[in-house]
Amino acid sequence: xxxxxxxxxxxxxxxxxxxxxxxxxxxxxxxxxxxxxxxxxxxxxxxxxxxxxxxxxxxxxxxxxxxxxxxxxxxxxxxxxxxxxxxxxxxxxxxxxxxxxxxxxxxxxxxxxxxxxxxxxxxxxxxxxxxxxxxxxxxxxxxxxxxxxxxxxxxxxxxxxxxxxxxxxxxxxxxxxxxxxxxxxxxxxxxxxxxxxxxxxxxxxxxxxxxxxxxxxxxxxxxxxxxxxxxxxxxxxxxxxxxxxxxxxxxxx
Length: 253
What we know:
Elements: E1 8-11, H1 14-24, E2 34-42, E3 45-53, E4 65-67, E5 78-86, H2 94-109, E6 115-121, H3 129-133, E7 137-148, E8 162-164, H4 174-183, H5 192-199, E9 203-214, E10 219-221, H6 229-233, E11 238-239, E12 242-243, H7 246-249
Parallel strand pairs: 5-6
Antiparallel strand pairs: 1-2, 2-3, 3-5, 4-10, 6-9, 7-8, 7-9, 11-12
């Protein structure tokens, strides 16, 4: 029986990674500004993809990590792990194993990268068990919601099934333009709940958790590290889209 250590992680072209993500990620779409892609191969076949790139909104992440003098790490000295998709063929612990290998490869081949940012979407997948197993620090969380986009609008969302609040508050967003022309949304005050009511569709609520991995030891967090118990204190524990408590997932073990 294969184990996670049998997986071979290789850099792959964006086209191959994006196609895999579009097929296997819950959102149904890749991130267009991803610049580094790893493929997870087992027995010579692609069974997973990980995409790294710049954050969508750099202003919100600058200052999260600082150097020894308290200066923020430059935005181009970090990467966001913005998509990770694996199929069911890979063995247990494949995700955390691949994250660890990817970080080692980045440390060796891209020494200018000081830290890695990623988010765990508790409303769809989980609260970040794989990040905690890979040495990431929990540094924040927020309550958020998405809606299930009706089929006719998904082509304006990159083919994605789910749409985030930001999609309805950016006037340059293609989906916003289409919905605004149809419903006259009215700008930044529009909510996911309002859009869901207009489209007669479902809202998916949950928490988003922010995780950070420091690669360069000359840098450190400029924000508090939260204990993992925070997740259960706010009722945000999830695994594979289902609510779960700390005792059930054995975090401490």
